[in-house]
Amino acid sequence: MADFYQNGVVTTLHNLSRRPTEELEAELLRFSQKRPMALILPSLYSELEGEALPNIVTELTQVPYLSEIVIGLDRADKEQYKSALKFFEKLPQHHRVLWNDGPRLKAIDEELSALNLAPKELGKGRNVWYCMGYILASNRSESVALHDCDIVTYTRDLLARLIYPVANPQFNYEFCKGYYARVANGKINGRVSRLLVTPLLRALKRTLGDHEYLEFMDSFRYPLAGEFSFRRDVLSDIRIPSDWGLEVGVLSEMHRNYNHNRLCQADIADNYDHKHQDLSFNNDQGGLSKMSIDITKALFRKLATQGFTFSNEMFRSIKATYYRIALDFVETYHNDAVMNGLTLDIHNEEKAVELFASNIMKAGTSFLENPMETPFIPSWNRVTSAVPDILDRLLEAVEADTAELLG
Question: Which InterPro entries match (predicted)?
Fold first, then answer.
């Protein structure tokens, strides 16, 4: 059972009573009369053939309070899109599948690209961004949740606990970040969060001094969780990264746009596991290696906007400080694992720390060499200012794809 301790500057909503899912859903059904709710599912076509997504869809068929489900489908040809429509047709809620590789949505993307307003990279960030645009265009929902499609331990109470803070009309939260313990198959997982993000934030505090942004980021128990929820108005202003810095970038945007008392984190699962990325020791353009570089650059970029000046010497100090703190964390996690009857390979943990330390320097070098790099996708407010009818056309394109392929 979770404790009730409030750490940092962001409200933590715990799972203290193991409240029945049916009770939460009954409340959410009442809330939906005032705040209709939606779910975004960013998906690769390959996930339709995996073990996680079929179970997620089965669980979602039992959810009574959602007004719509928006599925962003990547890496799918025409036949695969038709297959996806059949795959999701069992959902009783109003739902749409955005065929991101289809000619209609690609034409919209090309038009926005010509104006330098489209995502520059393929991936989850781009997928999520177009789904957010569709939510704005459909105008069906006031509270929106987002979670990944590879959660092999998924049960529908995860969604209920995730969306509850932004759906309850008596709460004033604009954004909720999910968190959970990454423990599965007798091991502690979540290496990038445990061995990179937390020790790096502590190292930045030590080298740069206490700063409100670093305190804010260090308040989140699982900053890289891919599960969050938000009120509809958040969608218009948020600028999200198109690279692996998505989760850190979203938190940074919440820090920029809202007071801390409008943000929270919630314990959404006792048991959470999803597909694991390879560390990619010999390839910094893939796996957790690329992820660590993108995340580190996202932190450096945000701190630069806060007035910090970086140099190669500063990055070397950050790396050295990080390395010492991260090695101490390896011992901490090892002892935690042993006491709980879990396993944790110290050798592999320290290899990961060495890789992340090296990638901190790579991220720093990239940051200095490309000071004008802007991985953020423009906000939908900016896009609609430049192309006023774009949301209507996005909605029409999705409806046309659906009608054509279903017909």
Answer: Nucleotide-diphossugar_trans (IPR029044)
